Amino acid sequence: MNGSKSEDSRSNKAIKRNKTYAYIKRYWTLYLLMLIPLIYIIIFRYIPMTYIQIAFKKYSIVQNVWEMELAGNYGFEYFIKAFSNRDFLYALRNTLLLNFLDLLIGFPAPIILALLLNELAFKRFKRLTQTIVYMPHFLSWIIISGLALQLFAPTNGLVNIVLNRMGFKSIPFLNDPAHWVWTYVLLGVWQSIGWNTIIYLAAITGINPELFEAAAVDGAGRFRRIWHIILPGLRPTIVVLLIMSLGRILGSEFDRPYALSNKLVTSVSNVIATFVYTNGIRGLQFSLTTAVGLFQSVIGVIFLTVANAIAKRFGERGII
Q1: Stretch 161-186: mean pLDDT
Q2: Nearest to 271 by CA among 83, 89, 92, 84
Q3: Which of 111, 207, 271, 290 qualifies as a cystine partner to 55, CB 3.0-4.6 A?
Q4: CB 107: neighbour CB atoms within 10 A?
Q5: Full residue range of the structural domain in which residue 89 is found
């Protein structure tokens, strides 16, 4: 009896080995191709993580990162310095404010645009409109800032010239902090709305067309179809993109605020990315800015994890 069991186990192991060998022999080229991105990720993503230690050590350009002396307060000296720095606190506030407004206004905008484009009856006009609205995604923020200066300059900007000729006063789009914030947010929406719309249009095409046919037979109008078919079909995509956006709530682009900023609006345009550039690259305070970057990343992971957990609690798949 024991002998037959051992023979069965050996035969099962032999079958599994043969299956594994056949599988590898068939798909080894795919695994070979996977090595390229894996090597890239290891070299350019994981190995640089060793330099996170700089946030806890006194940086020295002549020493290896493993040999650097531990900073004071058990390595948290530069974290304490960051939160004692008024410029960093202002940058933290501005980052949260601008990202929140981006999320509040910029997140639903491509959803609305995708719904509108989906309802267009003329396919050529739909394609032309879609092409026009996603073209700004390919413009750098340096080019966009130049366009914004030509359009919104207080004295010789095209918009203010038109307003003056119509009898209205000039609006300080780029010179007043409050106006600059809304100009910054709306330019961001204009730049990204078309590209993000592609994702939602792709999700709409994945909805079962039989649902639309059944709704039409039942007499449902366009708004009913949007509310009861399209939006529920888009919900998984919306949740995933919302989770990813919340994960970047403390993140900040560098080129966008840096290109649109000027001395009159630094009170609202100075974000964490520009703070790191000013104090780290130009000010050579590498330990301080590494600590700021690490804090930024940890908070982003926390937001991402919490948002994902909430999404799963409401029955969505999430991303983790």
Answers
A1: 92
A2: 92
A3: 290
A4: 16
A5: 73-313
Q: What is the pTM of this model?
A: 0.84
DSSP string, 145-158: HHHHHHHH-TTT-H
| Angle of CA points 158, 126, 202, to nearest 5° | 110
Q: Which candidate, 181, 175, 202, places its Cα nearest to that of 105?
A: 181
How far apart are alpha carbons 278 and 282 in whole angstroms? 5
Using only C-alpha atoms, what is the Rg of the chain?
27
What is the model's pLDDT at position 8? 60
How many CA atoms, within 13 angstroms, populate the side-chain half-sphere of residue 164? 13
Helix (H, G, I), strand (E, B) or coil at 70: strand
**Which amino acid appears at position 72 of this protein?**
G
Residue 46 CA to its chain's centroid (Å)? 20
How many structural domains are present in the chain?
Answer: 2
Q: Predicted confidence band at 178 (pLDDT cuts at 50, 70, 90)?
A: very high
Tell me: do 77 and 51 sit in the same domain. Answer: no
CB under 8 Å to 71, separation ≥6 — which residues?
A: 56, 57, 58, 77, 78, 287
